[in-house]
Amino acid sequence: MAPVAAKIQDLDNNSPLLPITKRAHLNFLSTIQDPGSQRLTWYTPPLSVLVIKKISDSSVIQPFKDLITYLTVDRNMMVYIEAKVVEEDLLKEDEEFLNMKHKICVFKEGYDDISEKVDLVTCLGGDGTLLYASSLFQQSVPPILAFHMGSLGFLTPFRFENFQEQINHVLEGNCYLTLRSRLKCSIMKDSDETNIRHLKNDKSKSTILVLNEVVVDRGPSSYICNIDVFIEKRLITSVQGDGIIISTPTGSTAYAAAAGASMCHPNVPAIIITPICPHSLSFRPIVVPAGVEIKISLSPESRNSAWVSFDGRNRSEILHGDSVRITTSIYPIPSICFQDQITDWFESLAGCLNWNVRKQQKRLDSSLPSHSSTSSLDSLVSEDNGSR
Q: In sequence order, what E strands does 83-182 have?
């Protein structure tokens, strides 16, 4: 079954030529891109949906069954779920689920490719559930509707209480979307640069797409990491510390934020490079343009190997001569907004991370005379003149 086509409306699609000299012009947007111009519109109604649930959580079981029933019976949609969900102990002997089992399609991660069969993805869980859903699609990704049923919920803005209304709104289309960029990563085991294809043009299945970050750390070794960082084949710096984080703007509010990076809105086209406990007082996190190719390898003087992980998964050892290549993927995650791109992000900052939460300063009693800094300065000048 072919997937239903969907499009992202871009209301700011005028790209006039900007003259820079009499003989040269530059393609340039007449106005700065408005995040609110990114909306979801279905060409035809979606027919299939992938439901991803948090594993081994009893609180998700009943909402999961309610969602499956609504999608199959009320909306007459084809529903895909994972084989490990069907085999979960909490559902194996559940009569209500067994009665609806014949209405769903089951697939196995790593064996069945459903990327061309799914029109919409629905997540029941926390941020980790959304990261896992991202890992299932190594190319284009259907729009993702994420219900908050986990711990933090920074990336899951929807509440399940009125899920029918939320799903109907999404299926009708015209929703706001946040296009969350991902990183395209590859581990190169060959130190001969002439045999390595450029990562930007590499379409092999050996690449991994991550939504949050790539982390290179010292692993179990007691020695500090000693790794070199290259950008566009140029050595930028060497990291001596516990490691380094290469994150997307979405990942800037995760591990990178804990390591001292600035939090970056997901619509900003950037890659954030953050050291982990660097043995240097001047090593600050930096932001580089999206699309550059970053290479990380062990320094020749390194006393030990390093370890790399991708969104907390696929942990691998990096030896001398190995390298990790990272660039921005052309396949972002279209995350459906509860309200809009700006409101959702700032509400998550305040609600999940307590960003700038402080008791409000009390105002002065109106009966007291107000003293501005200017009047205080004038009085000091007057006193000084009087003393002379």
A: 104-107, 120-125, 144-148, 175-180
